[in-house]
Design brief:
globular, 2% helix, 13-stranded antiparallel β-sheet, 266 residues, two-stranded antiparallel ribbon, mainly beta
């Protein structure tokens, strides 16, 4: 079960709810210390197009309860869960959890750039957000996602956000952001092995192209700041036979306006 990262609740042939992300039940980070989390999700035996997920976690150092709720509608009937290829889903998410700017970037698995990156405790945030998104995958490698999101962020180190306004530094305890965006991913000739709760990429040696644009509003103490952010990236893994793999990542990001640091390119 731990290897498969999920466990059926009840008879595995008839159950309608699974525990998932079992490998993340115990975890550790500098903000929460020891963290425990339990996650559950419905499967297609309950409904072949409507799926629900929920998780609850607790950090023993910060003594805060974290949670996440998801409700997804698949426009295609699924064999077991909504993440099966190809995705054609509309999803609502509500979450309160710790967040590190940059962690949502689309990367190849085992990317050494992210493995070697140590999160600064002073850069981590508590983030509460609600999001509505639509994701569509095609059989020829192109997928796209549209989203709208409302977020409320607070520093995890009890420090304020310092923002310069007309040459004067002001601080605020919360940073509220509303944004909408669209992203495109093109990964040609890709194939997956589908199991019960996850899918495994068969080959990662084909190039991956990613393009996204976000338009948002950051609510500051005296005004609302409009911003635009664009990202373009190319990623590819090269198999070096007995010597392992080489990952190439070229990434360009542009913030078209001034914005608070959690929104800046990373």
């Amino acid at each position: 079960w731990v290897i498969e990262n999920n466990m059926p609740l009840g008879n595995k042939h008839t159950n309608k709810i699974d525990l998932y992300n079992l490998r993340e039940v115990p975890a550790y980070n500098t903000v929460e210390g020891v963290r425990l989390r339990l996650s559950a999700a419905t499967n297609a035996r309950l409904h072949r197009q409507l799926f629900a997920k929920a998780s609850i976690g607790y950090g023993f150092r910060d003594q805060k309860v974290k949670h996440r709720e998801e409700l997804a509608w698949s426009f295609d009937k699924k064999a077991y869960h909504e993440e099966e290829f190809p995705r054609n889903n509309i999803r609502f998410i509500h979450e309160y959890d710790i967040f590190s700017p940059g962690e949502n970037n689309i990367r190849l698995r085992n990317d050494l750039l992210l493995i070697s990156y140590r999160r600064s405790r002073y850069a981590m945030l508590y983030r509460q957000f609600a999001e509505l998104n639509y994701e569509k995958e095609t059989l020829y490698g192109l997928s796209y996602t549209l989203w709208g999101r409302a977020s409320d962020m607070t520093s995890a180190s009890n420090r304020f956000f310092y923002i310069s306004q007309e040459g004067v530094e002001v601080h605020q305890e919360h940073l509220k952001v509303n944004d909408v965006g669209i992203s495109f991913k093109y990964w040609p000739h890709q194939a997956y092995l589908q199991d019960k709760r996850q899918r495994t990429i068969v080959s990662e040696t084909h190039p991956l192209f990613y393009l996204s644009h976000t338009v948002g509003q950051a609510k500051l103490p005296t005004r609302t700041q409009l911003y635009h952010k664009t990202e373009l990236s190319y990623q590819q893994r090269f198999n070096l036979s007995h010597y392992g793999n080489l990952d190439i990542v070229a990434d360009y990001q542009k913030m078209w306006n001034r914005a608070p640091f959690p929104l800046l390119p990373y």
